[in-house]
């Protein structure tokens, strides 16, 4: 499926124009970002929220099943295994590459938005894929990383006295589509390696360049080895060295 900025913005407009807009931010059980992405991948309403055996697919259309998941891929294991018996499956993973933070104050007013300094990349999906590693490589399974610009509304929580975090994420509103990364083959996964890595690199070097924790970096490299995108290339002191099997 080819995704375009115009189709994405149209889905945003249609979703905002419905009951979700009238009822206010975050008042429905389903979050706006998830609802918009279902509309992007399933323009026809009949394709959305389709029962497949004991499960409900986000989208089930002519090209197969689409599941939208932001985290907690471990909850997908049994569901995906069942879906793959029925049709090809695309798992969509949205990444807020550009994020605008909007604080919702106690009286409901909105503070001026500010841009988050963080700029995550598509390799954010790798630690999540570790949770479903036994399914990787199965025929019919592919992944789509959506790079988005979003507005994140955060509720002020004055009762939270400990630490610096005095707000909690309430709603994410998609603004624009910045890019898509499709993961179907080993060479696709190899392209997730960020620029700036040496030809042979350690997990710690990967973590630094990819801006991941060391634990997530190790899990991600484990996934890359499992799909055949990288291989072990010896050791550097006590640390393992990795090398891409495809040019990136």
Q: Would you kindly provide a written description of the structure presented here, covering whatever features stand out?
A:
The structure is a single chain. Helix content is 27%, strand content 33%. With 248 residues, the chain is an alpha+beta fold. It folds into 2 domains: 5-184, no CATH class; 194-248, Arc Repressor Mutant, subunit A (Orthogonal Bundle). Strands 1, 2, 3, 4, 5, 6 and 7 form a 7-stranded mixed beta sheet that branches. A 3-stranded antiparallel beta sheet has the order 8-10-9. Helix 1 crosses helix 3 and helix 7 (203-210) crosses helix 8 (214-226). The chain is globular, with a radius of gyration of 20 Å. The chain starts with a helix and ends with a strand.
Shape: globular
Tally the structural domains: 2
Strand content: 25-35%
Coarse structural class: alpha+beta
Total strand count, please?
Answer: 10
Radius of gyration: 20 Å
Overall pLDDT score: 88
With helices defined by DSSP (H or I, 4 residues minimum), what is the helix count?
8
Q: Whole-Å distance between the termini?
A: 24 Å
SSE arrangement, N to C: HHHEEEHEEHEEHEHHEE
List the helices and strands and how they pair.
Layout: H1 5-17, H2 19-23, H3 32-41, E1 48-52, E2 55-61, E3 64-68, H4 77-83, E4 89-104, E5 114-115, H5 125-129, E6 141-156, E7 167-183, H6 186-190, E8 200-201, H7 203-210, H8 214-226, E9 230-236, E10 239-244
Parallel strand pairs: 3-4, 4-6
Antiparallel strand pairs: 1-2, 2-3, 4-5, 6-7, 8-10, 9-10
Helix pairs in contact: 1-3, 7-8
